[in-house]
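Milestone M4 deliverable, item 7.
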Amino acid sequence: MEYSVKRSLLHDKQTIKADCPECKRSQNCLVETGLLEITYEGPVDASDKHLILRCLGCDTVFYGHLHSFSEEVDFDYDEHTGEWRTFNPVHRKFFPKTNKRQRANWHNTSFEIAYPDLSDLLDSLLEIFNGGHNSFVAMGVRTGFDLVAEVLKIEEDLPFSDKIEALRSRGFISPREKSVLDNLVDAGSAAIHRDWKPTDEEADLLIETLEQFINRAVVLPQGLDNLVKKVPKKTVSKGK
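Output delivered:
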């Protein structure tokens, strides 16, 4: 079967939608230059566009890769003709990547110093989530709960269910929050033992739930303790 590659430079200054790493959203971007590479093998072909893009919103320059394959076919509905039509979907990647989730506002240098293990775990969760490894996110969130329980002085050798009950009985969480944490831990177990693969939305919700738990149970109380130390004490005036 004959194999060949055809390459050509892209000189037309086209505008396309692309994920700007600086604006962190889809923007109109100018194709400054690029290379079109079409690979042929018999009746099959693959197209790769390597693009140098400039964001028209912030002027950031970044790289884009658009790939399509003649044997990969999808369908869409033409509202004008009332017919279904086939097309070759285009897979788009941009570098640097736009992260789907950023650090929480309270996850700062002070938090890193006070809780280094929790800080490292949260950074790792964001890295694997932004990399698309959602099953590992569910496992990591389960570990994150374990670390928070350790910070709150819950006995390390207790099973997860007993740790959650200990948090409730000591006033760290409400009965409603206990139910949420039960589900959080079960999600991690499902990823480990039952081959559960959460979607991006589900993995994002797991991280959000863990972050809110950390903020409410660890960060806010510590912040309030620091605030109380700075508030001037009320002076009692002596009676005449």
